[in-house]
Amino acid sequence: VVQAGTVESFATGTVTAFQRGQFYLVRMDNGGLLALSCKCTHLGCTVPWVEKEKKFLCPCHASAFDITGSVISAPAPRALDMFPVTIENHVVKVDTSRRIKRSGFESEQLVFPGKP
Length: 116
Ligand code: FES
Description:
Radius of gyration: 13 Å
Helix content: under 10%
Distance between the termini: 18 Å
Number of helices: 0
Oligomer: single chain
Mean pLDDT: 95
Shape: globular
Strand content: 25-35%
Bound molecules: FE2/S2 (inorganic) cluster
């Protein structure tokens, strides 16, 4: 489990990359948190977040994902995997041992500070 930092250190509408654990912590405009795998669901290349375009763009075969990890452009067959997020005493924790596959984004995947 990676301690990512305090909730307050992640501004809304931002994507923060973590080398250890190889994930991105996304804070949506509505304050919800989502931890996304850096690995492309096509063939596993590391997918960088491109701030200018507000997209994850895979350098290998040009798959694109939006800020929630949902596929915008193939060949990626499904959304970026996610990892469980918990918040304890204002600290965001990401369990990188539990990779969750999903076909797309659903609002229930977001974790909100202040809610159990
Ligand atoms: Fe990302 Fe192929 S590995 S598009």
